[in-house]
Structure prediction request, 755 residues.
Amino acid sequence: MQAFYCALAFLGFLVGIGSSCAQDPSLLHLVRQGKSEWKIVLPQHADPLEQEAAERLREKIQAMTGASLPIVAEESILPPIHSIFIGNTQAFQHWALPSTRIEVGGFLIAAAGNRLFLCGDSPKTTDYAVSSLLEVFGCRFWAPGALEIPRRLNLVLKKSFCRVEVPPTPWRSVHYGVAADPEYRRWHKLDWVGDEIPDRWAPYWVHSFLSILPPSQFFDEHPEYFALVDGKRRPTQLCMANPDVLRKVEAYVQHLIEQNPKIQVISLSQADNVEPCQCRQEKELTAREGSAMAPVLRFVNTIARKFQQYTFSTLAYQYTRKPPRNLQPEENVRIMLCTIEADRSRPLSAQTESRFADDFQIWSARTSNIFLWDYEVQFTNLLAPFPDLYVLQPNVQWLSQRPLQNLFLQGNGVHTEFSELRCYLLAKLAWNPQIDFEATLQEFLAGFYGDAAPYLSDYIHLLHKELGASASPLRIFGSPIDAKDSWLRPQVLARAEKLFAEAKMAVRGKPTLARRLSFAFLPVQYAELECARSRGANANGIWQQTKEGNWQVVPAWKEKVREFLAVAAEAKQKNLREWGLSLKEYGQLWGYLLHPTLPQHRAFQRPIKVEPRPVHLHAENLCDALLGGDRADDGWVQWKDSNPSMVLDLWPDHHAPAPQRLRISCLQDRERSLLFPQKIVVSISDDGEGWHAIQQIQPVPAVTDDARQAWTISLPQNSSYRFLRLEMIRPHCERPHVFLALDELLVDGPPAPWD
Prediction:
């Protein structure tokens, strides 16, 4: 493909020329001292997009200079001078350089005599040419509501000005809340999936199988339509080997086509979990082809051959990412290849251990119909610091070297960490991977944050330097807690706070910049809260011990929580995770943690013995007053392939009332083989040898892949005992490994958020 910014005769441009150059014959004076004799010329039968492009150019030139250029329709093949021609006019066909060829997705901006031509391969890309010309004149669209239009008396270009822009990938989408704004996308030459559903795409564009055959409609009567997992049918995926499933999906496709005559792309792709069918036919095909993609691709190919005029999109994602040994995708099958497992601290091309590079090479050798899906934010903690900015360019450059049809760069939400900056950088990279990245980054900081820019630049470089020195991986399903002793240790966060305090001083009296800065500070605040929460009663945690030996909340954390919640609410931050944890729920969690009686609950820091040893965290974490979060690695004590037993010593004070209740909870995360126990037995003992069972709990298997169940056990009031014992029995299943997870043993503590 033609290189970006391939100039046919690119001799430079000049903007804002003063009177000393007023008579320079090599210059085109589009506007001189706020006045213009130029006009904007459209084709005789202009497309609506071309009309909008002309109006946008006229409007922005007037905002810059005060000069109003008339918009007229082309009347003759002999074009008048002092005209800006928009689109494929007769004048362009007559006057453009004969050797000029506009490639797919690209456009040309060229001067010829006292004329200027803007023409793309379509009205859409002609509109893109207007944005690029406006950027030549110094306009910048930082974010929705932040369009910078400089004031100029003169607009001048070299008469020899000629440049061609061609992106490496025809379709580009940066999926951030920032890019949900249509004008922003238009300026930055971005596509948007929502614009193409339901007309171009089928109603479901990804993870579609369970929408085509909903378990709520089919599972009770036809469990055989769904995956065989651990010896039982479960509605996690479809059974690709079932001929009735194939017939049902074919009928769905036929009906979809009949109802949607404009449709071009139909999604047939796996659900978002890692529990494929384990039936004999699928297991045999997977073993023969060396990839669990084989049953899916065979299924999709079969349908694609019957509807060859349509494109069928399917995922190469997690367990289906590896290409089969022999099966090839049909020409009308699109492979949505995903980088979900990658370490974001290093370029994709350097991660030989993930084998993504090998899979990418094989897929791209087999088909050019690849939809590349990359991930740009920490989905489990959307506001967490995520220093991956300096791998964005090498990743996009490396990905763009291969023949992609679609490049999808997935962020999330309106206010993730530096969402405006990330969206801007990724949009620029998607169009031109060879930009001067550091200059673009610094230009954005200066344009969007004003005098705070140097401090934010120092903050960005601080985190990237610390991450690099730690040699820690950076995962999209990670947490600030993972880095609390390395690149987010207290000293680093203190330095970050100082930089933001200095930035705040630099924009005093500028409320718009101060507001943007307060939103940019949210990730630092969130990291501080999460790291302190995880430490609990340890150094730099949220609780401290008084001289009298009691525990209390460190006063500073109350104000930090209040400030974070207030600013996040102002930023309209709804969720802190991709799948939930609303701001309200996060506030409730902190309300629980800051409860004055929490560290004093009856089991806090009591001796506990656990057999066997946990594989994640320690037995003491069952009595640290910290509840497990909604992720398996957030505060959950875990065991592998065992039936754990734990004995809690309550050290009874015979002058104190008997404990009233015990609260516990378990977590299920089937993707990580973390299951609910089959049974939990709660017993009491006075001496730790003779035990009396007081309750037996049988958790209800959850339909969802991840879930929490909690129980409150009433403790005996009419007997004396010192020890509490919990025994957990692992469930029977065919998985090679099973994990169990238990939360805090909360004895007479304050109500938990899940109560």
Summary: The first helix runs from residue 48 to 65. The two ends are 59 Å apart (CA to CA). The CA atoms of residues 402 and 447 lie 34 Å apart. Residues 1-21 have pLDDT under 50 and may be disordered.
